[in-house]
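Sample pair:
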Amino acid sequence: MGTQLSLLDSTLLSSGLSSLSGCIKDEISSNLSADLKGLEGRRVIFATSSNRQPLVQWQEGPSTVLPDHIEIDHSPTLLSAVDSSIVPICNLADGTLYVSRVAVVFSIGGSPSNYLRLGPFLYHSNGDSLSLGRLGLDKTVNDEKLLEAAIRTQMERSAIGHLARFLRGSIILIDGTLRLTSSESSSPGIIQEAKRNNNTLIGISKTSKIQSVSEIASQLRGIYGAPFFCRLNYGPTDSSIYTSVIAKFRDDGVAFRTDILGRDTREALALLAGNDAFYRGYPESLRLAHHLSVFTPFEVVCIRSHLSSVLKLIELPSEDTREVILRWFWSFKGKIQ
């Protein structure tokens, strides 16, 4: 009897699968759709990352962008570039232990002159509300990427704040937008100190998810006579605090979204162009700050070894659940004809 019931259930299931499949497909199709005819002949980038940018214009035809050219100003001006990095060291029952580092590179006259390399700093994310509050996060946050970004932002704000107070008439370069410094509630005193000491904050974004920025940047890539910039037509949330443009500093380089707070836009970009070296149009001081802040795999191993020795940590056997569950597919994928 058990076998008969099993066969009956199987028969009913098979006959109903077609109807069930149709219902699921109809609901998904009603929520997700694409006008494929509208994509005919469009230019595309086949990529799994939004970091890839076109080497030519998105749209065919002459450029519609009219850039404002900059006359390079070689007046000696101190540049300080800030960047940071963070990596998870180990997982615990109540959270994760992170190690982070921040670096500052000083340049003048187109050459680096000195640097600061601060860290490593340890942070244990165990859901402590006071600790998360200092990072500007709610205690319910459990997104690793959001937490790592908040830790990096906190370090960079500290470095930028002290640079703004310590330096006079300088340019402080930041990797990314100026949003991390534009909110006075989260960055008390940075803007006031920068203005009081005649320091200019410049944020340079390597990529942007804003379509209009990507479109203008692709057009500027094919225009020569750098350095120049193009003002953005849209108004950023903090447009009353800083100015946003698309700037291209070298003819063989990429155009980047650039935020300026302090000096006049043209003056600030002219001084930056004359006091830093550039690789593919990106400030060399920011590249150096990045390389000084990142951890090498060997450094991560050494930190783990040191913490294990000092804190007498006990390493548990572990596995990547996703890899274990899906391993059969990857193992046989190459053998399937």
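Confidence is low (pLDDT under 50) at residues 1-5.
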